[in-house]
Design a protein that fits this description.
alpha/beta, OTAase-like, Urease, subunit C, domain 1, Amidohydro-rel, about 25% strand, eight-stranded mixed sheet, Amidohydrolase family protein, Metal_Hydrolase, TIM Barrel, 2 domains, 14 helices
Amino acid sequence: MSETVLFANAAVLDTAAGVLVAGQRVLVRGGEIAAVGSEVEAAGARVVDLGGRTLMPGLIDCHVHVNAHTADLAGLGDQSPAYVAVKAAIELREMLHRGFTTVRDPGGADFGIHDAVAEGLIDGPRVFFGGKALSQTGGHVDMRPRGRAVSDGHHCCPDLGLVCDGVDGVRKAAREQLRTGAHHVKIMLSGGVASPTDRIDSTQFSIEEIRAIVEEAEAANRYVAGHAYTARAINRGLEAGVRSIEHGNLLDRSSLDLFLEHDAFLVPTLVTYRRMSIEGADYGLSPANLAKNEIVLDAGLKALELAHGAGVNLCYGSDLLGGMRKHQLDEFAIRGAVIPAADVIRSATVTAAQLLGEEDRIGRVAPGFAADLLVVDGDPLADIGVLTDPEANLDLVMQGGKVKAGALG
């Protein structure tokens, strides 16, 4: 059970306003934030003097793949699910120790991973999962080489996706993911980098198929996340009701209008392309995959600038594979080079919480919110690089009122 703690002399990062408020006291009780202010008192609480250090909400990464301990996604489905689960548990703990108290996995993580974290069997961020991502035949998660006709869609195969075709087929596939408790349904709207047979500039699924999946998600009070690169693929998804676009590196101004019209979300994942260009081959990416990576590598930063300038809802995402996942925090520095630090932080807190439908529970230091808190040595608004070096600057990670890394002073 979490103890009652009063953080004193804290500089609280107001993520909604994008300001640092010095001289604050924050009371944590029963796993929640009970009070915030300069005069807060609580008899019997353990008082922790932060000495002016920053107290901010735990980070939210809206695009991780906890099963993807290798970039060789084609071989992942043939591995033991027990082995992959153990590797996922290790990665989840490392994510938590980087300061991520919540993540969304749009392909791979299932109800077992979610339940293991929720029940405290393993340490990790709370997981919002989509189950297996849906792809058409020959789409982004169809990992068969050209010469193979058969595929195994069994739910215990620890790969990231499921191949389905036709309106009836995609309805059933969406219902199967939702049946397991998935928080969203992920679909492939275009080709991707790590798949063997599709083109980056392809569009995937018919409009009728996309709408059918959206209908099934909405019927379950859930939403659809869509992998897409080109404006053509992005726009088809947004027009059909897809709520979040993952990546979006090749969007254009017509896409921006649709994002605003539908109040949709964009989840850029710039760090993964940078790391794949540097070390992707070391972690299993083929020469063909690396060639596709070059198509989207430099375009992503321009897309981010365009979307930010237009006022699109931006969420933090990393999408790293294999050993490259240790660079999860570098997305802060990449984005911080072109947009204000307050907006980058908002993408990993307030706006991310809105996408998850948890805006009244996580992403802010405010009464009634979960006590997901970080103590940071430095001011991330003045130097966003503070967040990229947890060994030097992250003094405490609290999740639900319980200390997960560091120690109360």
